[in-house]
Amino acid sequence: MKPPPPSHFDYHGVHAVAPHDRAFRVRWSVADGRSTLVRVREHTCMCTYPVYELCSGGGLSFIRQYPFEGLDEMRESPWMRAQVTRELWMRILTGQAW
Ligand SMILES: [Zn+2]
User: Model pTM?
Assistant: First the structure.
């Protein structure tokens, strides 16, 4: 018997949990278009907005947020050390920050 074809859900990535009541609010700012080369290290699943991306560039890291469906509007967290940004990333994924 053949295995079933992969379902839609097999293609889903990580989903950020909905922020809980006392979640920390990130100070998002409109992306300022720094010329630094940015690499996207991780991202959340595109099926749910906001979509988040963990990015690095120029020796720092930050998180991008696409608040609405489509990628027209982009916001950025403060640029921080990789370790600090990674902690914020985990908080976002677990609903402790948004
Ligand atoms: Zn998904």
Answer: 0.84
CA of 46 to the centre of ligand 1 (A): 6
Q: What is the pLDDT of residues 33-67, one digit of tens each?
A: 666 789 999 999 999 999 999 999 999 999 999 99
Kindly give the distance from the C-alpha atom of residue 75 to the centroid of ligand 1, in angstroms, as a whole number. Answer: 21
Q: Does residue 7 lie within any of the structural domains? A: no
Task: Specify the number of domains making up the chain.
Answer: 1
- pLDDT tens-place string over residues 63-84: 999 998 888 889 999 999 999 9
Q: How many other CB atoms are found less than 10 A from the CB of residue 39?
A: 10
**Measured in angstroms, how far is the CA atom of residue 81 from the centroid of ligand 1?**
28
